[in-house]
C-alpha cells in the first residue's frame, strides 16, 4: 500500500482553505469609501452615548484623528481616541444626546455636508 493523498482529499483541503480565506480576507482590506470609516465612528459614538446615558462630543480632525469626550466631564479626559483612514476633508464636531440623536456643533462650519439624519445619525442621500 502506498503512502500519499488521493485526489479527492487534496480537493477537499483546497476547498476548505479557499472557504476560510474568503471569510477572513475582508478583514484585511481597508474601506475605500472615506465616509464609511467616519460613519462607523459616528455610529459607535451614538451607541456609547445611549449606553452611558450621557451627552457626548465627537471631534474629527482633517488629519483623521478623532476624540470622544463626555460633555459634562471634559476635565476627566477623552473617553476614546483614534484615527480614521482615509481622513475626512473637513473638521467635524458632533454632539450626541443620551437619547441617540445627534447634531453638529454650532460653531462648526461645513458639517452639514455630511447630511446626517438627526434622529438616527445615519447618512442621508
Characterise this structure:
The chain is of the alpha+beta class and 125 residues long. It has a domain at 34-114. The chain is built from two helices and five strands, in the order H-H-E-E-E-E-E. The chain has helices spanning 7-28, 34-52; strands at residues 56-60, 65-70, 80-83, 92-96, 102-104. Strands 3-2-1-4-5 form a five-stranded antiparallel β-sheet, covered by helices on one side. Strand 1 and strand 2 form a beta hairpin. The chain starts with 6 loop residues before the first helix and ends in a 21-residue tail after the last strand.
What is shown here, in short?
The protein is an alpha+beta fold.
Order of SSEs, N→C?
HHEEEEE
Q: Helix coverage percent of residues?
A: 25-40%
Count of strand segments: 5
Radius of gyration using CA atoms only: 22 Å
Write the layout of secondary structure elements.
Layout: H1 7-28, H2 34-52, E1 56-60, E2 65-70, E3 80-83, E4 92-96, E5 102-104
Antiparallel strand pairs: 1-2, 1-4, 2-3, 4-5
Amino acid at each position: 500500500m502506498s503512502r500519499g493523498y488521493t485526489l479527492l482529499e487534496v480537493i477537499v483541503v483546497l476547498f476548505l482553505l479557499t472557504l476560510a480565506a474568503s471569510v477572513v480576507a475582508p478583514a484585511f482590506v481597508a474601506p475605500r469609501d472615506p465616509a464609511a470609516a467616519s460613519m462607523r465612528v459616528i455610529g459607535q459614538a451614538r451607541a456609547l452615548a445611549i449606553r452611558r446615558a450621557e451627552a457626548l462630543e465627537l471631534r474629527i480632525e482633517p488629519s483623521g484623528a478623532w476624540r470622544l469626550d463626555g460633555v459634562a466631564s471634559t476635565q476627566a479626559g477623552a473617553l476614546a481616541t483614534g484615527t480614521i483612514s482615509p481622513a475626512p476633508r473637513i473638521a467635524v464636531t458632533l454632539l450626541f444626546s443620551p437619547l441617540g440623536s445627534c447634531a453638529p456643533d454650532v460653531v462648526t462650519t461645513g458639517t452639514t455636508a455630511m447630511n446626517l439624519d438627526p434622529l438616527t445619525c445615519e447618512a442621508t442621500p
